[in-house]
Amino acid sequence: MKQITKWLSVVAILAMTCAVSQAANIVVKGSDTMVILAQKWAETYMQKHSDAKIQVAGGGSGVGFAALQQQTVDIANASRKIKATEIETCIKTFGKRPTEYKVALDGLSVYVNAVNSIKELSIDQLAGVFTGKIKNWKELGGADAPIMVYSRENSSGTYEFFKENVLKGRDFAANAQPMQGTAALLQSVAKDKNAIGYGGAAYGAGAKHLAIKKDDSSAAIEPTEETIVSGKYPIWRYLFVYVNPTLDKGQIAHYLNWIRSDEGQSVVKNVGYFPLPKNLRE
What we know:
By secondary structure, the chain is of the alpha/beta class. The protein has helices at residues 2-23, 35-48, 61-69, 84-94, 123-131, 157-165, 182-191, 225-230, 250-259, 262-271, and strands spanning 25-30, 53-59, 75-78, 99-112, 120-122, 148-152, 177-179, 195-200, 208-209, 211-213, 236-243. It folds into two domains: 2-105 and 240-280, Periplasmic binding protein-like II (D-Maltodextrin-Binding Protein, domain 2, 3-Layer(aba) Sandwich), CATH 3.40.190; 106-236, 3-Layer(aba) Sandwich (D-Maltodextrin-Binding Protein, domain 2), CATH 3.40.190. The strands form two sheets. Strands 1, 2, 3, 4, 6, 7, 8, 9 and 11 form a nine-stranded mixed beta sheet that branches. A two-stranded parallel sheet has the order 5-10.
């Protein structure tokens, strides 16, 4: 009888250990723009919380939202706001609207090859380039050479943000080359002297970013922390995480609070994005 009691006690302890382990396992998926930041958050948090196990994957904001709807992830990273149709699907699936947290600021930079003589463009000129209306660099004061447009895949939140806010909903040029991730896009721009592309501010190595003008009469603005946080730079955005409210407790809630703390926001700055002002961290 004592042996049975002892065995049951061992089973109970193992079950409790398993439950704690499962509770501490956080699965994160979504924005490729945010994947390096999310990995660094996870790494830093796990170093300080040995019971936490955080798995991070990219794939694009749309992929993250789909996984949230299918309840295969705990947290969806997104470089754009959730769509009404995605909210509706979440409500149908788990009965609630996902909770949205702003977690960082980003300036969407426009990149050209380092040898390109162009230093600035307006929003209208960018729209002309990326929709295919402007096809040659000489139309913008540059060399007589065809413009090679690099974009993101259509599951990307960065793609959708750029299309909505720069192209004003118009389609990208038919010959735009879709790239899987900002890092891959920048590698292509760095190798192609006639290239142009766009991506998060943290991915600038290997290419040159342009100063951007809101319109022809405005000053060209560089994407810096001051201009992005103040909203002076024309192409800025929030970066988000979304979570099923039912799961927003325990280890997951602690992790999300930590991301928005001073410590979590210092990771944002170290990676190359811009911390949220404190009044937006609630």
